[in-house]
Amino acid sequence: MALSKGDKVAVLTSGGDAPGMNAALRAVARVGAELELDMVGIEDGYAGLIAGRVVPLSIRKLDEASRRGGTFLGTARSKEFATPDGQKKARETIAREGIRGLVVIGGNGSLTGAHTLCDAETKGGPLLVAGIPASIDNDLACTSMSIGVDTAMNTIVEACDRIFDTAAAHHRTFIVEVMGRECGYLAMTAGIAAGADAVLVREVGKTDDEIVEHVVSTMRRAYSAPTEVGDTTKKRVLVIKAEGVHIDSARLKELVDTRIKQELPGTDTRVTVLGHVVRGGTPTAFDRLLGARLGNAALRALADGRTDVMAGWVGPGVPGPPTPYDPYVVLTPLEQVLAETAKLMSGESPLAMWRKKIFQEVERILQR
Ligand code: F6P
Fold this sequence. Notes:
The structure is a single chain. The protein is an alpha/beta fold. The chain has two domains: 8-148 and 283-346, Rossmann fold (3-Layer(aba) Sandwich); 150-280, 3-Layer(aba) Sandwich (Rossmann fold). Helices cover 45% and strands 17% of the residues. It has twelve helices and 13 strands. Helix 8 (208-224) links the parallel strand 9 (198-200) and strand 10 (237-242). The mean pLDDT is 96.
C-alpha cells in the first residue's frame, strides 16, 4: 500500500562507509520532504535501530555533509542484529517509533538485513523497505555501480600516480594492495586507469607460485627493456594487488625478492597497503549524483508502496525495466539481489564469468 502524507520513513547507513552515502541521505531527506513524509534518521545502522537511536534529519546539515565522505548518521557492523534478540529489538523500535518505511544504504550484509525486516509489523501493514547499494567493493549484483566505487577508484589512481613518481626515481617495484574484499573489480578498474604494469585479482584463480611468477616476469620485462638514452621512466614496476588475493603482500614481496636475487640483483621492491585511505575522502561528482539518483528513486518507489527492493544503476547484467522515476535506475527484489550477488562472488553468474574473462584478457594485454 502506498505511503500517505505524514507517514514516518527512517533511513540508515550500515556496514563499511562509502563516499556518496551522504549525498544519498540528502536526496532521501529532500525527496521525503517534497512528498510530505515524516523523515527521520537512525544512527549507526542496525546497532542504532536496536538501541532506538532515532534522530531528526536536517536537510541543511545534510547539504553540508553531502560534500564529504563517511556517513553523517554513522554506521556499524552489528553482530547483535543477526541474533533473534537483536531482530526482536529492532522490530520493537520500528513499532514503538511508528516507522512505516525504511531505507537502508549499504552493501551485501546491510541489504540482507533489510530483507529480513520486510515482515516487521507496523500500524499500516508490513514495513516497506528499500535498499540502496553503497560499497567501494562493487561486489553487489543488480547494479552496475555501487555508491563509493568511483571515488575509491579515483583515490587509488591518485595514490598510484604518486607512487609511480618515487618508483621511477629509484627504479623500484611497488606492490600496492587495495581494498575490495573478495572482489577484484576496484583493483582491476583502478589498475587500468592508473596504468599499472600488472593487476592481481582473486577471480583469475592463480596459485601463489603463479602469482610470484607473474610479478617476476613483469619485472623482468620492465628492467630488461631497452630505453632511450636518458629515459629511465620505464625501469620501474607498479603491481596492484586486490585484497581478495589471499597471499599476504609482505609474503609476496619476500617470495619475489628470493626469485630476483640472482636474476635482477640490486632491484628493490616495496609494499604499500592503501587500506582505509581508499574508503575515505571527498566523493566525486559521479558518486554524489549516483547517491542522489538512487536515493530519489528508492524513496519514490517506497512512497508508491514498493517494498523489499533495491534501486540499482543500469548497465551490463542489470535486468529489469527502468523506473518511472529515473531511466537509469531499476528496481530489483532484494531476494534476487542477494542470490545474484552470491553467484557473482562464487563465480557462477554470467556477469562473474564475463568479469573473469575480461580480467584474464587485461592481464595478458598488460604484459605487452
Ligand atoms: O566492504 C568495504 C570494505 O572496505 C572492504 O573493502 C574491506 O575488506 C572491509 O570493508 C574492511 O572493513 P573494516 O573497515 O570493518 O575493517
